[in-house]
Amino acid sequence: MSTKQSCDLSRRAVDLHKAGQTRQAIDELQEHLEERPHAAKLWELLGVLPFAIDDTELARAAIEQASIMIPLSARGQLVLAKCYDALGYREAAGAIYRHVATLDSLDDELMEPLAAGLGRYGEYQHALAICRTAAKRMPDNPEPLKGIVHYMRRLHMPVERILPTLFRAHHLAPEDKDCRITLAWLLHETGQSNDGAALLVAVDSDEFSCIRCLTLMQHIFEAAGHDDRANDCRNRLKVLAGEWPGA
Predict the structure, then answer these.
(1) How many other CB atoms are there within 10 angstroms of residue 133's CB atom?
(2) For burial by CB atoms within 10 Å, which of 8, 42, 170, 222 has the most?
(3) What does pTM read for this prediction?
(4) Which of helix, strand or coil describes residue 97?
């Protein structure tokens, strides 16, 4: 198969995937690879696409085949790590995550899954570094900032160091209620319960089914002397408790 033919097949498979026809893309790749089994890049693509539809075994087998023939791309390595992760090969997955974190020029869309993978294996410093790189590349995207906050908290860094990043994330995504509650709680932890409660005034406790969120809100309102709002949270928790199996 010529390089041009391989590129054309890859483009068609990617276009089918983007159009929601991933299974057809996989079938066509498999058909071509039965006739031309030495097309290494197509093997790698055949690994990436099935993972997108949770066909972990096919993804693993295809990417492992590609890895015998060529060095895998960063995307291929990350997918292989996630396959190993899902299949319980934790040491192999962790080693690949750590290796991918050392690579230069990672695509922006690989940053979040890489940080999440590193975080699953307790590599919080590496995950934090990836999130910081992503935040520099995408300064108007709150998600890397939320990742920075998450891993700074995992590393038990002082709240005073975390707050500026969290304020920035909240500024970029004021509608994000989880971010708002986290900011309110950290303000409460630093003795600024009134400011924390002020952030939550517009939040309707009846919209929440998250026990942790409601409990944090209740504590913040109690500390700020907002007894009515604290009672709202307490009542919502009682409703949810009544919905639990066996209640």
Answers:
(1) 16
(2) 42
(3) 0.86
(4) helix
Would you give the DSSP letter of residue 20? T
* Cβ atoms of residues 128 and 155 within 8 Å: yes
120/131 Cα distance (integer angstroms): 14
Q: Write down the residue that tokens 């997918």 correspond to.
A: 79
Longest CA–CA span in the chain (Å) reads 73
Q: What is the pLDDT of residues 168-202, one digit of tens each?
A: 999 999 999 999 999 999 999 999 999 999 999 98
Encoded tokens for 70 = 């060529």
Task: Please provide residue 199's backbone torsions phi and psi, each rounded to the nearest 5 degrees.
Answer: -65, -25
**Per-chain mean pLDDT for the chain:** 93
Please state, in angstroms and rounded to a whole number, the distance separating the CA atoms of residues 194 and 139: 30
| Phi, psi (rounded to 5 degrees) for 129 | -65, -40
Question: What's the full length of the chain, in residues?
Answer: 247
